Every structure is written in structure tokens, then in C-alpha cells.
Amino acid sequence: MCGIIFFKTADLVGIRDFYEGKLGLKLWQDQGTCQVYEFGNMRLGFCLADKAESSGTITFVYADPAEVDAAYTRFRDLATSRPEQSEFFQIYHFWARDPEGRSLEFQCFIDNVEPPREQAEIIVLNPDQTKPKLLLTRMIPESGIKKLKQVFEVHANIADLVMPRNEVLNRISEMDALLCLLADQIDREVIDQAKQLKVISNYAVGYNNIDTAYAAEKGIAVCNTPGVLTETTADLAWALIMATARRIPEAESYLRKGKFRGWEPLLLLGQDIHERTLGILGMGRIGTAVAKRATGFGMKIIYHSNRVKELDFEAEKVDLPTLLSESDILSIHIPLSEESRHLIGAGELAMMKSNAILINTARGAIVDEKALIKALQAKRIFAAGLDVYENEPQLPQELLALPNVVLLPHIGSASLATRSAMSELAAENAIAIVQGKQAPARVV
Ligand code: GLV
Ligand code: GLV
Fold it and tell me: Is the C-beta atom of 204 inside 6 A of ligand 1?
């Protein structure tokens, strides 16, 4: 936990010019209405407030929530607003007036997370010159690493961050295998640096981060982790369906903010799920698993897909306009490619029902994020549930500000069991290729 000193200001641009431009302080977080700078081992925060100068605000900083609670209790009679937890910085803060009528601001900043390290830390896990070399761009569950160590000398980035691109570029030339994440862009430049690479094993089912055509041209195999994450990702799509339709995060935060005054006839009315129409865009493995779960809810299932597939439940294949206009809940399960980029744009969103819900657990760029924000702002559709974004990990401020969207940090396959299974499959893929065997899941 670490403290932060927070100031109110009416001029965030001026603050930035001064602290970043003139003093050269490093901007640690910018959340639009708040900026935090690093100053030695302290942090200096500035919140936008219209009357910052004129109201004579005094800021008190407390080290933990208990102190803030105590202060709030002392001044409660004078409080002008209730405590609120900021979703951005975990700043617990409230405003009150002191006996002289000055505005008081109490807040504390709770940061249990270690500040991210800037540097990759690459070590050889099992030095052994006789083995082929594998670059592991980030630590994955142990079960896969165990397998890798039996066959490879594993050069692993043990820092808790995406491996910087220049580190990948610097090391790839002497590697026989690469085990990478979807955040690693394995493009022409990287592939050109690789002198003896035989396999790119992606720790993901989606492989839009890899130039597969160029890898194939260079005789490098590309592998992924399909199948093992299907059911887990389908579970998460359903978590988003439930959360958006019944406004679960909104309802929970309402209660935590102390707004619950008892049962109300019109409180937080959502959409039903049972017996509605579920539209599936892409009836592949995950799309099928999501659709199958809908049979338990007595839903009508329609889908649009390029694949011809035998289904063991009832579902109607339709064209894209029909899918858009008839779905109550539309869930996306296609890979990202040049054809699917921005497949769902303003025109497509306009075809959806006004009470429809859009779920995306596939790839952010399949949806035109700006158009989606506009549709949600204008309440053109009821809600969206998103696990993926166009420019991860960046999210537009406008999206964060919307109440009718449920946002998750790309956790579709994030169960303990599945991430371990992915780890093993990614390892088996790399091992099979260097041993000249057929890989369990080879893309090219
Ligand atoms: C995750 O998004 C994956 O493609 O596995
Ligand atoms: C609600 O709780 C009801 O009993 O209808």
C-alpha cells in the first residue's frame, strides 16, 4: 500500500505542461479527469475540479481506509457528499465542509499492486547448451514450463510484463522456438531476425498477432491452443450475458454505494434471457459451446457462420442482416482477420433491436469501438458486454464512463485449469515441431 498526495486543479493541461514538460516528472497514470505523476518514490495526483482555486480546498491524505472512515464519521454532520470509491485509482474520497465553511476533501489511495517494472528480466531457467533454445516471452503456468524444460533450454522473461519488442528482436536470432502471447506482435520484422526458428507457439487460440503467411513462407510452423479453452471461454461469454442483461455490476455498485432502500417496483429493470433469441456470429468451437448453453434457457438460437457444421441442438442459419435484426443477444465468436475487422460498425449496430445486447469475447477490432460507444451513448442498443478491445490494454475514456456496458480485462480463458491446459498444449506444440513430429494444433 502506498500513499498519494492529491490536489484539485482547474487546469489539468497547465499542470501537465509544468510537471511533465518543465519539471520532467513522469506521468504515471492519466485517466482524463485525473493525472498522477511519479516524484521520487511518491506520487502526486491532480483531479479536475471547476472551483479548485476559489473554494479553498484543503486536501487531507490518509494512509488507509480506516483513517478515512474515522474522519468521515467525525465530520459526517457537515458532509456534502457521500464517500465514493474511484474506479480508477482506488481513491476513497469524499467532500465535506469544515466548521469555517471551507471545503474539505478526505481521501486515501490504496495501491496493493507493485508498480509495473519497465524492464524485462530474461533468464535461462535450465542452462543446457545441448538443447535447442526456446524463448518464452512471459511466464505461463508451471505444467507447460516443466514440459518445455525437458526438451529446450528455456530463456524466459520472468518479469511481470509483456516482453518489450526490442528484447524479442534482440534474442530471436539464436532461438529454435518461440512461445509467445497474443500481446507479442510477431510480424515480418521479428520473423526476419529469426535465423533458426522452427516454431512460433502462440499461447492463445487466436493468432492475429502473428504474420502466419510470412512465417509459412519462411518455413516456420505456427501453432495455437484451440479446444482446451472452449468451454471456459463459453462460460465467460455467459457471465457477460447475465451481467449485462440483468445489470449485475451496476446493481452491485448501487448497493455498495449505500443506495439500496428496499425492494422497489422499478429498481434496475433489465432484460430477460430465457426464451429470447440468441444470435451467434461464428459457429466454431466457442460459438457452438455458447449456443449449446442457451438450450437450457429455452432460447431460440440463430447463427451466421461460414462453416458448415453438424449441430446436436436446434439452431437456424441466417444471413448477417437477419442475425443483426433478430437477435436479442448477439455474441461474437469469429477470429479477427482483414475481412472481419470492423465487421460490426455503425450500420450493423443500427440494424440491431433497441433492446439488444452485444457480447464480444473474441477480438476487439471486430467491432468498430467508436461506433459502439456512440450506439451505447445514444441507447441505440440496451447494453454491451466486452472482454476484448481494439487497442488493448487501452480503453477509451468514453467507454469507461458508460453505465450500460460491462467491461472485463480479457479473461475469457482465465480459469486455473484451462490456463494450465493451454500451457501444456503450447509446450507440446513447440516440442512436436522441433522433434519433427506432427503438432497437436498447427495453424500453418
Ligand atoms: C485469447 O483471447 C485467445 O485467443 O486465446
Ligand atoms: C420479490 O421479492 C417478490 O417476492 O416478488
Answer: yes
